[in-house]
Design a protein that fits this description.
89 residues
């Protein structure tokens, strides 16, 4: 790999301005906030998106579904469960 150091250095040379640094920091901070769970809490009385609150409360009642997973399910399905067939009894 030592022979490739000049080629790798050249490949990493580019234009990374202060604006790029600002955007990168903003996105990394947002990722950290989501990881910590600071952004939203969908539990009753704690705010969150009121449009999907009922759906999120219902889906979070399923064992193993956290608020983060519920957000992903909501984003993927749009909270429209009509596309899934009802359970067979």
């Amino acid at each position: 790999m030592r022979a490739k150091i000049p080629v790798l250095t050249e490949a990493l040379t580019g234009r990374f301005t202060e604006h790029h640094a600002f955007l990168t920091r903003m996105h990394l901070d947002l990722i950290d906030r989501h990881t910590r769970g600071d952004c939203r809490d969908h539990r009753p009385g704690r705010g969150g998106d009121r449009t999907f609150r009922g759906f999120l409360e219902l889906i979070c009642s399923i064992s193993g579904i956290s608020v983060g997973v519920a957000d992903i399910i909501t984003a993927e399905t749009g909270a429209d469960m009509n596309r899934f067939p009802p359970p067979r009894t």
